[in-house]
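The instructor's notes for this session suggest beginning with a concrete chain rather than abstract definitions. Hand out the sequence below and ask the class to guess, before any prediction is shown, which regions might be ordered.
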Amino acid sequence: MRTVGSMWLSFIRFANKRTKNLRGLRRAGISFYVSILRANIFLPPPRVILIGPPKTGTHLLSDCLSLMPRMMFSGRHFALPDFFAQGEPRDAQFELSKPPALDEPRLRAFLEGCPQGMFVTAHARFHVALRDLVKELGFKQILLLRDPRDVVVSNMFFIKREPWLRHHKYYAEVLRSDEERIMATILGFRSDHAIDRPRASIREIFEGYAPWLDDPSTLVVRFEDLIGRRGGGASEWQLAEIKRIGDFVERPLSREQAQRIVRKMYSKGGLTYRKGIVGDWQNHFTEDHQRAFKEIAGDILIKLGYETDTDW
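After discussion, reveal the predicted structure:
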C-alpha cells in the first residue's frame, strides 16, 4: 500500500505538469496535506533536508525516502532565492565569496515547520547561513548529485517540452535545433535579448553546490548509484545505496525492505521523468559539445568525481 507521502508526491507532480489552472488545486492540496501532517506527531527524529541541483533526480530520492518506515515528505520545497533578503537580486546564481544576505528569520520559520521524521527538498547552492541553520535545527542533510553532462541533456529536453518553464520561449523561438539547445544549456546565456531571462552555465550551477562536498555532516548520494538496473546502473549498488541512506536517516533497512522500496520508487509518472538513463549524454553530445563542456566545466566534472581527467 502506498504511503500518504508517496501519494502526495505523485499528486504534486501531476498538478505541476498541467496548466496554470491547476495551480490552485496544487495549493489546496498542499494545505490539505500539511493539515494531515500536523496530526502525525509520533514520527521519530530526525528531520531531513535533501539538497541538489535541478534534474539530478530529486523525485527519485524523494520517493525512496517517503517509502522508508516512518518517514514522510513534509510538503515543503524551496529554492534558496525564495529566502534572499529584501533588496537582494533574485538571480539564483551568486559568487560564493559574496553570498547574498538571507532572510534568516523567515527561513528558520519555514524549516522549523518540518516535523521530526519528515523531509524538505531544496535547490540550494552552498550558503554558510543555510549550513549553520540546518545544523542548529538538527536536520540530517543529503546532497544529491548526477553527472552534469546528463543533467544538461535532461534539462534541455525538459525546458523544450514544458511551455510553462522559464527559458522555454527562448529554446523554442530562438534556438533552432537540439544541438543549439544543448550548447546553450552548457554555456548559459545573458539577457542580450528581450525574449527571456538569463540562464547560468552548467559550471555556475554545479560549482555552487560543490562546497557541500566538504561538509563532513553531509551524505552524498549519486543518481547513478540510486537509479538501478532500469536506468543503466547496477541492482546491487542500488540496494546498497538505499540501505546506506536508511542508516543515515536512522531508518535501518533489511535487504527485503530495500528490495520493496526498489519495486515501488521507480515511477514513470514523475513530473520531470524522461529517460533517467546513466550516460545518456553520449547519445546527444557532438564533438563541439564535448569541447565546450571541457573548456567551461571540465574541472568541475573532476571535482565531483565523474572523471579523473579531461580525456573523455
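Then share the key points. The beta strands are 47-51, 72-79, 118-123, 139-145, 218-222. Confidence is low (pLDDT under 50) at residues 268-273.
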